[in-house]
Amino acid sequence: MPIEKQANESLTSLDAPERPLVAVAGPTGSGKSELALVIAEQFDGEIVNCDSLQVYRYFDIGTAKLPPHERRGIPHHLIDVLDPDQLFTAGEYARLARETIAAITARGRLPILAGGTGFYLRALLDGLFEGPSRDQALRDRLVARERRRPGSLHRLLARFDSEAARRIHPHDVPKVTRALEVCLLMRRPVTELFRLGRDTLRGYRTLKLGLLPGRDALYERLDKRCAGMFEGGLVEEVRHILARGFAATAKPFESHGYRQAVQLLAGELNAREALFYAQRNTRQYAKRQMTWFRREPGLVWLKGFGDAPEIQQAAVECVRPFVQKS
Prior knowledge:
The protein is of the alpha/beta class. Helix content is 51%, strand content 10%. The protein contains 14 helices and seven strands. It has a seven-stranded mixed sheet, sandwiched between helices. α2 (32-43) crosses α14, α6 crosses α8 and α10 (215-231) crosses α13 (271-294). The protein is globular, with a radius of gyration of 20 Å.
């Protein structure tokens, strides 16, 4: 059987009166888009993007964005809604996604989230704690401390809030800094404040399906896909985006593949090096995604790729009773 249940919440809440919502999650390259299409075809659904890069216009090849002619006539939402230089937060995503989901439900159709940005999914379902306003003087002191003693902020966070320290990677200095700032300003652990201050999604019950292919097979697929992106015009796509007047420092250019394409155009990397680093960084990103989703409560694991017939059948068998209880 390709299904492994991480927790039973998704399946034991079937008698709840809320409207159904399906989420397809997993690491990059695991076949989320294809599986979401199959579910949408079977259950009269519409797909809501849950990927932090696919919200940007012009970033198509490197994000594996499904072109319109491959969407099988199924509506897709929250794709190509921002210019590359526009800032977009998880809170803004949650607000737009909730509005979109409500509109899909009002049409009598099934909303299906699809994407690998776990923080967006959590913001949508669980809400976010806004926290106190930034204290620039405090942040400056924290930044100076980290420069003098790299890693010291994460160690300090572990003293104030061990749970937050476990969840935030030591190298993710911006998140560590913000967590410490909240702890110091509010004089309480940030994880405790998160639980108290979040605005969870109401009126829905969610079936969360997680794709989990074997690591070696996933990495092989990612390497091939990354090479195909470079061969298929990724560098030219970047050249055209820059020609539109967008700076190479725009947020989406920080992503894997795009960063290396920018460095290639700038003469900082040659073609071989660009591909090597893009492949390596993409594999590392997929590993972090798998770690994140393993901590996601209520996830029903499908142990394979989303384009595999047996995985698609297993997903349909999960979704059918979930939807029929509505």
